[in-house]
Design brief:
With 214 residues, this protein is mostly helical. It has 12 helices and no strands. It has helices spanning 8-14, 28-44, 51-58, 62-66, 72-95, 101-117, 123-128, 135-148, 150-157, 167-180, 192-203, 207-211. It starts with 7 loop residues before the first helix and ends with a helix.
């Protein structure tokens, strides 16, 4: 991973996404280890991060560190699951403000783009670093990511789409677009919210609504 910077200030700003989760039974020290590991995985990727690197960042080595970390593989899976929790929580909170199915989908798209395009976000690097992990772990991570995407499956199922429009194709095209915006996005032009609104105007198959400028 590159483009996320380094230094204590950068690490502190990127390592706090776990502290907001309702994870019971974790000591403050355990949370510190998880947050440091999450930041390192996001900055360097799975393959380039060692258990020793994590220990050095939090000042723990040897047996003291392995009290919190059983293996790098298990640690990455655990943090990846937390990243999904963070993303799902943000999407659910955004959707909860609306009842109209189109507005709910728009809110979910904007929330996804806010996560995707935030240079300080840990969530998307953790959710996207599949190729470097062992195959057996990758299968598990992809299955969990697919379950996360059920949010969009349910949103699209609620839309008043034409009967001959394939909802699976609609969902896959929308998610492909959302997941690739970061490749062409430039700060200072359209905001994530404006891009999300534009995407929904394109994907909304309602001529009357489009003509009315809704």
């Amino acid at each position: 991973m590159s483009g996320y910077g380094s230094g204590a200030e950068k690490r502190d700003s990127r390592g706090k996404f776990i502290s907001g989760l309702a994870v019971e039974g974790l000591s403050e020290r355990h949370r510190e280890v998880l947050e440091a590991a999450a930041a390192l995985f996001a900055e360097r990727g799975y393959a380039a991060t060692s258990v020793r690197d994590i220990g050095e960042r939090v000042g723990l080595l040897g047996g003291s560190l392995y009290h919190y970390i059983k293996s790098k593989e298990a640690l990455f899976v655990n943090i990846h699951d937390m990243a999904l929790q963070v993303a799902e929580g943000r999407l659910q909170a955004a959707m909860a403000r609306h009842e109209d199915p189109w507005k709910r989908l728009e809110a979910a798209c904007i929330a996804m783009l806010d996560i995707q395009l935030d240079p300080e976000s840990l969530t998307m690097p953790l959710m996207s670093d599949f190729n470097a992990v062992p195959a057996e772990i990758r299968i598990s991570l992809i299955a969990k990511r697919d379950k996360f995407e059920d949010i969009f499956r349910e949103l699209i199922e609620a839309l008043p789409l034409a009967p001959d429009l394939n909802r699976n194709v609609y969902r896959l095209l929308l998610l492909t677009l959302l997941n690739n915006v970061s490749g062409w996005y430039r700060q200072g032009k359209l905001s994530p919210a404006e891009i999300g609104q534009q995407i929904l105007r394109i994907f909304r198959h309602d001529d009357k609504a489009l003509l009315a400028g809704k």
